[in-house]
Protein backbone atom coordinates (compact mmCIF):
# COMPACT_ATOMS: atom_id res chain seq x y z
CA UNK A 1 0.00 0.00 0.00
CA UNK A 2 1.20 3.51 -0.82
CA UNK A 3 0.78 5.91 2.12
CA UNK A 4 1.56 9.60 2.18
CA UNK A 5 2.63 11.24 5.45
CA UNK A 6 2.47 15.02 5.75
CA UNK A 7 4.71 16.75 8.32
CA UNK A 8 8.30 16.64 9.52
CA UNK A 9 9.56 16.50 13.08
CA UNK A 10 10.55 13.89 15.66
CA UNK A 11 6.91 12.82 16.03
CA UNK A 12 6.57 12.35 12.27
CA UNK A 13 9.97 10.58 12.18
CA UNK A 14 8.56 8.00 14.62
CA UNK A 15 5.35 7.68 12.56
CA UNK A 16 7.39 7.28 9.36
CA UNK A 17 9.50 4.54 10.95
CA UNK A 18 6.36 2.56 11.82
CA UNK A 19 4.64 3.10 8.46
CA UNK A 20 7.70 2.16 6.42
CA UNK A 21 7.74 -1.29 8.06
CA UNK A 22 4.68 -2.46 6.16
CA UNK A 23 3.84 0.09 3.46
CA UNK A 24 5.49 2.16 0.75
CA UNK A 25 5.99 5.52 2.39
CA UNK A 26 5.74 8.81 0.50
CA UNK A 27 6.12 12.08 2.30
CA UNK A 28 5.32 15.74 1.88
CA UNK A 29 7.21 18.36 3.86
CA UNK A 30 8.34 21.94 3.57
CA UNK A 31 12.07 21.32 4.12
CA UNK A 32 13.92 18.03 3.80
CA UNK A 33 13.95 16.08 7.06
CA UNK A 34 16.87 13.67 6.62
CA UNK A 35 15.36 10.94 8.83
CA UNK A 36 11.93 10.82 7.17
CA UNK A 37 13.42 11.25 3.70
CA UNK A 38 15.63 8.20 4.17
CA UNK A 39 12.57 6.08 5.05
CA UNK A 40 10.52 7.35 2.08
CA UNK A 41 10.28 6.07 -1.48
CA UNK A 42 9.84 9.65 -2.64
CA UNK A 43 9.53 13.07 -1.06
CA UNK A 44 7.63 16.13 -2.26
CA UNK A 45 9.21 19.31 -0.89
CA UNK A 46 6.54 22.00 -0.93
CA UNK A 47 4.12 23.90 1.23
CA UNK A 48 1.53 21.18 2.02
CA UNK A 49 -1.30 23.70 1.57
CA UNK A 50 -0.33 24.09 -2.12
CA UNK A 51 -3.38 22.15 -3.25
CA UNK A 52 -2.53 21.96 -6.93
CA UNK A 53 0.97 20.53 -6.41
CA UNK A 54 -0.07 18.14 -3.65
CA UNK A 55 -3.06 16.75 -5.55
CA UNK A 56 -1.21 16.26 -8.83
CA UNK A 57 1.82 14.64 -7.14
CA UNK A 58 -0.35 12.23 -5.12
CA UNK A 59 -2.35 11.28 -8.24
CA UNK A 60 0.81 10.75 -10.25
CA UNK A 61 2.28 8.47 -7.55
CA UNK A 62 -0.96 6.54 -7.10
CA UNK A 63 -1.15 7.18 -3.34
CA UNK A 64 -3.93 5.18 -1.66
CA UNK A 65 -3.96 6.47 1.91
CA UNK A 66 -3.13 9.84 3.48
CA UNK A 67 -2.18 10.91 7.01
CA UNK A 68 -1.63 14.52 8.07
CA UNK A 69 0.19 14.84 11.41
CA UNK A 70 0.81 18.43 12.68
CA UNK A 71 -1.93 20.60 14.21
CA UNK A 72 -1.24 23.64 12.03
CA UNK A 73 -1.73 21.63 8.83
CA UNK A 74 -4.90 19.95 10.15
CA UNK A 75 -6.32 23.41 10.83
CA UNK A 76 -5.44 24.45 7.29
CA UNK A 77 -7.44 21.51 5.91
CA UNK A 78 -4.58 19.50 4.40
CA UNK A 79 -6.54 16.27 5.07
CA UNK A 80 -9.33 17.67 2.87
CA UNK A 81 -6.74 18.44 0.18
CA UNK A 82 -5.52 14.82 0.24
CA UNK A 83 -9.11 13.52 0.15
CA UNK A 84 -9.78 15.67 -2.90
CA UNK A 85 -6.99 13.77 -4.69
CA UNK A 86 -9.18 10.67 -4.40
CA UNK A 87 -7.33 8.78 -1.64
CA UNK A 88 -8.64 7.49 1.69
CA UNK A 89 -7.58 9.54 4.71
CA UNK A 90 -6.87 8.60 8.33
CA UNK A 91 -6.55 12.08 9.83
CA UNK A 92 -9.34 14.53 10.72
CA UNK A 93 -10.90 16.98 8.27
CA UNK A 94 -10.45 20.69 8.99
CA UNK A 95 -13.93 20.70 10.52
CA UNK A 96 -13.27 17.70 12.81
CA UNK A 97 -9.86 19.08 13.85
CA UNK A 98 -11.78 22.07 15.18
CA UNK A 99 -11.93 20.11 18.46
CA UNK A 100 -8.30 21.27 18.80
CA UNK A 101 -8.02 24.58 16.94
CA UNK A 102 -11.08 26.12 18.56
CA UNK A 103 -11.10 25.57 22.32
CA UNK A 104 -14.49 27.33 22.49
CA UNK A 105 -15.97 24.77 20.08
CA UNK A 106 -14.59 21.88 22.17
CA UNK A 107 -15.94 23.23 25.45
CA UNK A 108 -19.34 24.17 24.05
CA UNK A 109 -19.79 20.84 22.25
CA UNK A 110 -19.10 18.91 25.45
CA UNK A 111 -21.41 21.13 27.46
CA UNK A 112 -24.23 20.71 24.95
CA UNK A 113 -23.92 16.91 25.06
CA UNK A 114 -23.51 16.75 28.86
CA UNK A 115 -20.08 15.12 28.66
CA UNK A 116 -18.49 14.65 32.09
CA UNK A 117 -15.14 16.11 33.19
CA UNK A 118 -15.66 19.73 32.14
CA UNK A 119 -14.14 22.38 34.40
CA UNK A 120 -16.22 25.54 34.92
CA UNK A 121 -15.56 27.76 31.91
CA UNK A 122 -16.77 30.79 30.01
CA UNK A 123 -16.03 32.04 26.53
CA UNK A 124 -15.92 35.80 27.12
CA UNK A 125 -16.09 38.69 24.68
CA UNK A 126 -15.86 41.60 27.10
CA UNK A 127 -13.95 42.68 30.21
CA UNK A 128 -17.28 42.74 32.13
CA UNK A 129 -17.91 39.05 31.41
CA UNK A 130 -14.36 38.26 32.52
CA UNK A 131 -14.85 40.18 35.80
CA UNK A 132 -18.11 38.33 36.46
CA UNK A 133 -16.33 34.97 36.00
CA UNK A 134 -13.48 36.11 38.26
CA UNK A 135 -15.99 37.02 40.96
CA UNK A 136 -17.22 33.40 40.96
CA UNK A 137 -13.84 31.64 40.95
CA UNK A 138 -10.90 32.18 43.22
CA UNK A 139 -8.27 31.27 40.65
CA UNK A 140 -8.64 31.09 36.89
CA UNK A 141 -6.77 30.14 33.73
CA UNK A 142 -6.88 32.29 30.59
CA UNK A 143 -6.67 30.66 27.16
CA UNK A 144 -6.68 31.95 23.61
CA UNK A 145 -9.23 29.96 21.58
CA UNK A 146 -6.87 29.08 18.74
CA UNK A 147 -3.54 27.28 18.23
CA UNK A 148 -0.53 28.86 19.93
CA UNK A 149 2.09 26.10 19.81
CA UNK A 150 1.58 25.52 23.54
CA UNK A 151 2.55 29.09 24.43
CA UNK A 152 -0.75 30.95 24.89
CA UNK A 153 -2.24 29.63 28.16
CA UNK A 154 -1.62 31.64 31.34
CA UNK A 155 -2.37 30.28 34.80
CA UNK A 156 -3.11 32.35 37.91
CA UNK A 157 -0.47 31.87 40.58
CA UNK A 158 2.10 31.02 37.89
CA UNK A 159 1.96 33.57 35.08
CA UNK A 160 -0.84 35.85 36.32
CA UNK A 161 -0.61 37.12 39.88
CA UNK A 162 -3.48 39.52 40.40
CA UNK A 163 -7.01 39.96 39.05
CA UNK A 164 -5.68 42.95 37.13
CA UNK A 165 -3.10 40.67 35.42
CA UNK A 166 -5.99 38.43 34.36
CA UNK A 167 -8.03 41.31 32.99
CA UNK A 168 -5.00 42.75 31.18
CA UNK A 169 -4.29 39.43 29.45
CA UNK A 170 -7.98 38.99 28.60
CA UNK A 171 -8.12 42.43 27.02
CA UNK A 172 -4.94 41.68 25.05
CA UNK A 173 -6.63 38.53 23.69
CA UNK A 174 -9.92 40.32 23.01
CA UNK A 175 -8.07 42.89 20.89
CA UNK A 176 -6.55 40.11 18.79
CA UNK A 177 -9.32 37.48 18.66
CA UNK A 178 -12.50 39.19 19.98
CA UNK A 179 -12.96 36.22 22.37
CA UNK A 180 -11.04 34.39 25.10
CA UNK A 181 -11.64 31.31 27.24
CA UNK A 182 -11.65 31.50 31.03
CA UNK A 183 -11.56 28.36 33.16
CA UNK A 184 -11.47 27.57 36.85
CA UNK A 185 -7.94 26.62 37.89
CA UNK A 186 -7.66 22.93 38.74
CA UNK A 187 -5.07 21.15 40.86
CA UNK A 188 -3.86 17.66 40.11
CA UNK A 189 -1.58 15.48 38.00
CA UNK A 190 -1.81 15.64 34.23
CA UNK A 191 -1.68 12.80 31.74
CA UNK A 192 -2.12 12.44 27.99
CA UNK A 193 -4.41 9.78 26.60
CA UNK A 194 -4.12 9.19 22.86
CA UNK A 195 -6.67 7.08 21.00
CA UNK A 196 -7.33 5.83 17.50
CA UNK A 197 -10.84 6.54 16.28
CA UNK A 198 -12.74 5.63 13.13
CA UNK A 199 -15.47 8.17 13.87
CA UNK A 200 -17.45 5.72 15.95
CA UNK A 201 -15.16 3.39 17.92
CA UNK A 202 -12.21 4.31 20.09
CA UNK A 203 -9.07 2.38 20.96
CA UNK A 204 -6.81 3.97 23.57
CA UNK A 205 -3.04 3.82 23.76
CA UNK A 206 -1.05 3.65 27.01
CA UNK A 207 -1.32 6.91 29.03
CA UNK A 208 1.78 9.13 28.96
CA UNK A 209 3.00 11.99 31.14
CA UNK A 210 4.65 14.90 29.34
CA UNK A 211 6.89 17.59 30.89
CA UNK A 212 6.12 21.07 29.54
CA UNK A 213 8.44 23.10 31.75
CA UNK A 214 11.93 23.78 30.47
CA UNK A 215 14.08 23.07 33.51
CA UNK A 216 14.73 20.39 36.10
CA UNK A 217 12.01 20.03 38.75
CA UNK A 218 9.38 21.62 36.48
CA UNK A 219 10.87 25.10 36.73
CA UNK A 220 11.11 27.73 34.02
CA UNK A 221 8.99 28.64 31.02
CA UNK A 222 6.64 26.35 29.11
CA UNK A 223 7.99 24.53 26.07
CA UNK A 224 6.65 22.27 23.33
CA UNK A 225 7.42 19.39 25.73
CA UNK A 226 10.84 18.34 27.08
CA UNK A 227 10.16 14.63 27.44
CA UNK A 228 7.71 12.01 28.59
CA UNK A 229 7.34 8.56 30.07
CA UNK A 230 4.82 5.73 30.13
CA UNK A 231 4.54 2.67 32.32
CA UNK A 232 2.22 0.28 30.53
CA UNK A 233 -1.49 0.34 31.21
CA UNK A 234 -1.47 2.94 34.02
CA UNK A 235 0.89 5.68 35.18
CA UNK A 236 2.29 5.39 38.74
CA UNK A 237 -0.12 8.00 40.18
CA UNK A 238 -3.22 6.67 38.38
CA UNK A 239 -5.94 4.26 39.34
CA UNK A 240 -7.87 2.11 36.89
CA UNK A 241 -10.97 4.21 37.45
CA UNK A 242 -9.09 7.34 36.27
CA UNK A 243 -8.31 5.63 32.97
CA UNK A 244 -11.90 4.43 32.65
CA UNK A 245 -13.24 7.95 33.30
CA UNK A 246 -10.93 9.46 30.69
CA UNK A 247 -11.89 6.79 28.13
CA UNK A 248 -15.55 7.41 28.76
CA UNK A 249 -15.13 11.19 28.29
CA UNK A 250 -13.37 10.56 24.97
CA UNK A 251 -15.99 8.06 23.76
CA UNK A 252 -18.77 10.50 24.64
CA UNK A 253 -16.91 13.16 22.64
CA UNK A 254 -16.63 10.87 19.60
CA UNK A 255 -20.38 10.13 19.94
CA UNK A 256 -21.18 13.86 20.22
CA UNK A 257 -19.18 14.68 17.10
CA UNK A 258 -20.89 11.93 15.17
CA UNK A 259 -24.29 13.15 16.36
CA UNK A 260 -23.37 16.65 15.13
CA UNK A 261 -22.55 15.29 11.67
CA UNK A 262 -18.86 16.05 12.22
CA UNK A 263 -17.30 12.60 12.75
CA UNK A 264 -13.73 12.46 14.04
CA UNK A 265 -11.40 10.06 12.23
CA UNK A 266 -7.78 9.94 13.28
CA UNK A 267 -5.86 10.29 16.52
CA UNK A 268 -7.76 11.97 19.35
CA UNK A 269 -5.54 13.19 22.19
CA UNK A 270 -7.13 14.04 25.51
CA UNK A 271 -5.14 16.18 27.93
CA UNK A 272 -6.50 15.24 31.37
CA UNK A 273 -5.92 16.17 34.98
CA UNK A 274 -6.71 13.86 37.90
CA UNK A 275 -8.15 16.12 40.60
CA UNK A 276 -9.75 15.67 43.99
CA UNK A 277 -13.11 15.62 42.15
CA UNK A 278 -12.15 13.06 39.54
CA UNK A 279 -10.76 13.30 36.03
CA UNK A 280 -11.11 16.64 34.23
CA UNK A 281 -10.54 17.42 30.57
CA UNK A 282 -7.92 20.14 30.01
CA UNK A 283 -8.04 20.13 26.21
CA UNK A 284 -8.25 18.02 23.08
CA UNK A 285 -5.70 17.69 20.33
CA UNK A 286 -6.60 16.21 16.95
CA UNK A 287 -3.29 14.38 16.51
CA UNK A 288 -0.49 12.50 18.24
CA UNK A 289 1.34 14.38 20.97
CA UNK A 290 4.96 15.35 20.46
CA UNK A 291 6.77 13.75 22.41
CA UNK A 292 3.96 11.35 23.47
CA UNK A 293 3.74 9.77 20.00
CA UNK A 294 7.21 8.31 20.46
CA UNK A 295 6.32 6.63 23.77
CA UNK A 296 3.34 4.78 22.37
CA UNK A 297 4.69 3.96 18.91
CA UNK A 298 7.73 2.27 20.51
CA UNK A 299 5.49 -0.30 22.18
CA UNK A 300 2.86 -0.66 19.43
CA UNK A 301 2.36 -4.30 18.48
CA UNK A 302 -0.03 -3.82 15.53
CA UNK A 303 1.07 -2.49 12.14
CA UNK A 304 0.38 1.25 12.08
CA UNK A 305 -0.38 1.18 8.34
CA UNK A 306 -3.15 -1.38 8.97
CA UNK A 307 -4.60 0.67 11.82
CA UNK A 308 -4.66 3.81 9.66
CA UNK A 309 -6.28 1.94 6.81
CA UNK A 310 -8.98 0.64 9.14
CA UNK A 311 -9.61 4.18 10.45
CA UNK A 312 -9.98 5.48 6.89
CA UNK A 313 -12.46 2.70 6.10
CA UNK A 314 -14.48 3.30 9.28
CA UNK A 315 -13.72 -0.21 10.59
CA UNK A 316 -11.16 0.20 13.36
CA UNK A 317 -9.22 -3.03 14.02
CA UNK A 318 -8.09 -4.15 17.51
CA UNK A 319 -4.79 -2.55 18.53
CA UNK A 320 -2.19 -4.12 20.86
CA UNK A 321 0.69 -2.67 22.89
CA UNK A 322 3.42 -4.26 24.96
CA UNK A 323 3.46 -3.33 28.66
CA UNK A 324 7.04 -2.03 28.61
CA UNK A 325 7.93 1.30 30.21
CA UNK A 326 9.19 4.05 27.89
CA UNK A 327 11.18 7.25 28.34
CA UNK A 328 11.62 10.01 25.76
CA UNK A 329 13.89 13.03 26.26
CA UNK A 330 14.27 15.97 23.93
CA UNK A 331 17.65 17.54 23.28
CA UNK A 332 17.10 21.24 22.61
CA UNK A 333 19.43 24.02 21.46
CA UNK A 334 21.10 26.35 23.95
CA UNK A 335 18.75 29.29 24.63
CA UNK A 336 15.57 27.25 23.96
CA UNK A 337 12.63 28.01 24.31
CA UNK A 338 13.03 31.81 24.09
CA UNK A 339 16.02 31.97 21.83
CA UNK A 340 17.17 28.58 20.58
CA UNK A 341 20.62 28.78 18.97
CA UNK A 342 20.20 27.85 15.32
CA UNK A 343 22.55 26.79 12.53
CA UNK A 344 24.80 24.81 14.86
CA UNK A 345 26.21 21.52 13.61
CA UNK A 346 25.32 18.43 15.63
CA UNK A 347 26.62 14.90 15.31
CA UNK A 348 24.94 11.65 16.28
CA UNK A 349 26.91 8.50 17.05
CA UNK A 350 24.41 5.89 15.88
CA UNK A 351 26.56 2.98 17.04
CA UNK A 352 26.67 4.41 20.57
CA UNK A 353 22.88 4.95 20.52
CA UNK A 354 22.45 1.32 19.53
CA UNK A 355 24.81 0.19 22.30
CA UNK A 356 22.79 2.20 24.83
CA UNK A 357 19.74 0.22 23.75
CA UNK A 358 17.71 3.22 22.60
CA UNK A 359 16.94 5.14 19.45
CA UNK A 360 16.82 8.68 18.22
CA UNK A 361 14.32 10.71 16.21
CA UNK A 362 15.33 13.94 14.50
CA UNK A 363 13.28 17.02 15.29
CA UNK A 364 13.58 20.53 13.83
CA UNK A 365 16.86 20.15 12.00
CA UNK A 366 18.05 20.62 8.46
CA UNK A 367 20.73 19.01 6.36
CA UNK A 368 23.46 20.78 4.47
CA UNK A 369 26.45 19.08 2.77
CA UNK A 370 25.63 15.85 4.57
CA UNK A 371 25.76 17.51 8.02
CA UNK A 372 22.85 18.13 10.40
CA UNK A 373 22.17 21.62 11.80
CA UNK A 374 19.90 23.00 14.52
CA UNK A 375 16.97 25.38 14.11
CA UNK A 376 15.60 27.34 17.08
CA UNK A 377 13.16 24.50 18.00
CA UNK A 378 13.62 21.08 19.60
CA UNK A 379 16.54 19.28 17.92
CA UNK A 380 16.24 15.54 18.50
CA UNK A 381 14.54 13.09 20.81
CA UNK A 382 16.09 10.00 22.35
CA UNK A 383 13.78 7.16 23.26
CA UNK A 384 14.16 3.89 25.12
CA UNK A 385 11.99 1.12 26.52
CA UNK A 386 12.45 -1.56 29.13
CA UNK A 387 10.41 -3.70 31.52
CA UNK A 388 11.68 -1.37 34.28
CA UNK A 389 11.15 2.40 34.15
CA UNK A 390 14.46 2.96 35.90
CA UNK A 391 16.30 1.01 33.23
CA UNK A 392 14.44 2.74 30.37
CA UNK A 393 15.44 6.09 31.88
CA UNK A 394 19.09 5.03 32.15
CA UNK A 395 19.09 3.91 28.52
CA UNK A 396 17.63 7.24 27.39
CA UNK A 397 20.23 9.15 29.42
CA UNK A 398 22.95 7.02 27.86
CA UNK A 399 21.64 7.99 24.39
CA UNK A 400 21.81 11.71 25.19
CA UNK A 401 25.58 11.33 25.56
CA UNK A 402 25.83 10.02 22.00
CA UNK A 403 24.63 13.31 20.51
CA UNK A 404 27.18 16.12 20.32
CA UNK A 405 26.43 19.81 19.85
CA UNK A 406 25.38 22.91 21.83
CA UNK A 407 22.31 21.11 23.23
CA UNK A 408 20.77 20.40 26.62
CA UNK A 409 17.98 18.24 28.06
CA UNK A 410 16.17 17.48 31.33
CA UNK A 411 18.01 14.69 33.14
CA UNK A 412 15.18 14.31 35.70
CA UNK A 413 12.42 13.07 33.37
CA UNK A 414 11.43 9.50 34.23
CA UNK A 415 13.69 9.30 37.30
CA UNK A 416 12.45 7.72 40.55
CA UNK A 417 12.76 11.09 42.33
CA UNK A 418 10.40 12.87 39.95
CA UNK A 419 7.95 9.95 39.92
CA UNK A 420 7.83 10.08 43.71
CA UNK A 421 7.02 13.79 43.51
CA UNK A 422 4.03 12.98 41.27
CA UNK A 423 2.64 10.25 43.50
CA UNK A 424 3.10 12.44 46.59
CA UNK A 425 1.26 15.31 44.91
CA UNK A 426 -1.61 12.92 44.20
CA UNK A 427 -1.61 11.72 47.82
CA UNK A 428 -1.67 15.31 49.13
CA UNK A 429 -4.86 15.90 47.15
CA UNK A 430 -6.48 13.41 49.51
CA UNK A 431 -8.72 11.72 47.04
N1 LIG B 1 -8.19 24.60 33.99
C1 LIG B 1 -6.88 24.46 34.24
N2 LIG B 1 -6.42 24.39 35.51
C2 LIG B 1 -5.09 24.29 35.79
N3 LIG B 1 -4.14 24.24 34.84
C3 LIG B 1 -4.52 24.31 33.54
C4 LIG B 1 -5.91 24.42 33.17
N4 LIG B 1 -5.99 24.47 31.83
C5 LIG B 1 -4.71 24.39 31.37
N5 LIG B 1 -3.83 24.30 32.39
C6 LIG B 1 -2.34 24.18 32.27
O1 LIG B 1 -1.91 24.81 31.08
C7 LIG B 1 -1.35 23.88 30.18
C8 LIG B 1 -1.72 24.24 28.75
O2 LIG B 1 -3.13 24.27 28.60
P1 LIG B 1 -3.86 23.58 27.38
O3 LIG B 1 -5.31 23.82 27.49
O4 LIG B 1 -3.41 22.17 27.26
O5 LIG B 1 -3.37 24.47 26.15
P2 LIG B 1 -2.25 24.29 25.02
O6 LIG B 1 -1.70 22.90 25.10
O7 LIG B 1 -3.01 24.57 23.78
O8 LIG B 1 -1.24 25.35 25.35
C9 LIG B 1 -1.89 22.54 30.63
O9 LIG B 1 -1.04 21.47 30.25
C10 LIG B 1 -1.98 22.73 32.15
O10 LIG B 1 -0.70 22.53 32.75
MG1 LIG C 1 -1.99 21.12 26.03
Annotate the secondary structure layout.
Elements: E1 2-6, H1 10-19, E2 24-29, H2 34-39, E3 42-45, H3 51-61, E4 65-68, H4 71-75, H5 78-84, E5 88-89, H6 98-101, H7 103-112, E6 121-124, H8 127-136, E7 140-143, E8 154-155, H9 163-177, E9 180-184, E10 189-198, E11 202-204, E12 209-210, E13 213-215, E14 219-222, E15 227-231, H10 240-259, E16 265-275, E17 278-285, H11 292-298, H12 304-312, E18 325-333, E19 345-348, H13 350-356, E20 359-362, E21 365-368, E22 371-374, E23 380-386, H14 389-400, E24 403-404, E25 407-408, H15 416-428
Parallel strand pairs: 1-2, 1-4, 2-3, 4-5
Antiparallel strand pairs: 6-9, 7-8, 7-9, 10-11, 10-16, 12-15, 13-14, 15-18, 16-17, 18-23, 18-25, 19-22, 19-24, 20-23, 21-22
Helix pairs in contact: 1-11, 3-5, 8-9, 13-14
Amino acid sequence: MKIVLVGSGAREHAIAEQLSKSASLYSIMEKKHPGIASLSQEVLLCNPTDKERVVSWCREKGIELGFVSPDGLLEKGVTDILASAGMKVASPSREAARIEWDKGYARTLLQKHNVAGLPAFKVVSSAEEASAFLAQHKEVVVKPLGLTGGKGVRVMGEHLHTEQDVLDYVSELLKKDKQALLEEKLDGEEFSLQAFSDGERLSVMPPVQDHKRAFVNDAGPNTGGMGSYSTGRLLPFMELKDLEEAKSIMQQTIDAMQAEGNPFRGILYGGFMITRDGVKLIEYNARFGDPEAMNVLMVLRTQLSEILQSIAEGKLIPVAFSTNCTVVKYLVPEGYPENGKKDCRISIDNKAIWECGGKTFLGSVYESDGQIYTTSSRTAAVAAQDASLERAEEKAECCTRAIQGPLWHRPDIGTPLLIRKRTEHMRRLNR
